[in-house]
Amino acid sequence: MTQDYYKAAIERFTEWLDTARGHAEITEPTAMTLATATPDARPSARLVLLKQVDEQGFVFYTNTRSRKGQQLSENPRAALAFFWAPLARQILVEGAVQPVSDAEADAYFASRPRLSQVGAWASQQSQPLANREAFDAQLNEIESHFGDGPISRPAHWTGYRVRPDMIEFWQGRDGRLHDRERYYRGEAGEWLWTLLNP
């Protein structure tokens, strides 16, 4: 029964995401705030796009040399927040993070637009940049290097999977008397469910 709670949480997330995708006023339904922290608990947050969700977890892709990539290598835990204002809905996810397999990363990278593939090679993400011209020159160099052939995935670009130990659903209501439901992993590893006060 406890695993049923986790399955129910993932199914509910998928239903809410599908509703957000179908809403005309929500232009980036897969956008989520990703919060990470250094080992000494200095947090940082940014918006990234969810690329996959299933019972294995929530997947996003990035440069491993970026600030978030460095923090995840040192402190492999993260929190996600989805907010769809027109629906008055929010979902929070917390859990451990692990890299996806090379095969998964390769397959997703191959599906990306060519310019995005070139950018993954050219960008020294989160590092200082002298000017835009310098970056454009690097883009041109990468494009010349690969020519018309396929572009392989750089080793410093991969996916991360957040494996949840908590998923909370928030439905806004009048008077700030919101509905909150939390699915979470108990101390023995079992999945539990509870309502929360607004």
Describe the protein.
With 198 residues, the protein is an alpha+beta fold. The chain has a domain at 2-100 and 160-196: Pnp Oxidase, Chain A, CATH 2.30.110. It has five helices and nine strands. It has helices at 2-21, 67-74, 102-111, 114-122, 132-146, and strands at residues 31-37, 43-49, 52-54, 57-63, 77-84, 89-99, 157-171, 179-185, 191-196. Strand 5 (77-84) and strand 6 (89-99) form a beta hairpin.
Q: What secondary-structure arrangement, pairings included, does this model have?
A:
Elements: H1 2-21, E1 31-37, E2 43-49, E3 52-54, E4 57-63, H2 67-74, E5 77-84, E6 89-99, H3 102-111, H4 114-122, H5 132-146, E7 157-171, E8 179-185, E9 191-196
Antiparallel strand pairs: 1-2, 1-5, 3-4, 4-7, 5-6, 6-7, 7-8, 8-9
